[in-house]
Amino acid sequence: MTRGNQRDLAREKNMKNQKGKNQASSEMEGNKGLSLQERQLRDAAKMREKQQLAQQKKASDGGAGGNNNASGGAGAAASTR
C-alpha cells in the first residue's frame, strides 16, 4: 500500500470538520432558546447594523472605496465604436 496512512488521516480530518454541520439551527450554541422568528429578528438587526457601518465607511472614504480603475469602473464594457 503506497499511500500509507494518508487516507486515514484525511478521513479523520474530514470527520473533525463535519462535526457540527449536522446540527439543526435551533441546536447550535448561539441559537439555543431562540425561536425561528427571534433568530430572524436578531440576524436582520445585525445585518442592518453591518450595512450602516459599511455606508458610513464608504461615506467617510469619499465613495472611492474598492474601485482602482482609472476609468471609474467602466472598463472595456463601456467603450463605444
TrEMBL record:
Domain called Small EDRK-rich factor-like N-terminal: residue spans: 1-23
Domain of life: Eukaryota
InterPro entries xrefs: SERF-like_N
Residue stretches of biased makeup (Low complexity): 67-81
Sequence ranges of Basic and acidic residues compositional bias: 1-15, 39-51
Disordered: region residues: 1-81
Pfam families reported in the protein's UniProt record: SERF-like_N (PF04419)
Protein name from the UniProt record: Small EDRK-rich factor-like N-terminal domain-containing protein
Protein's organism: Adineta ricciae
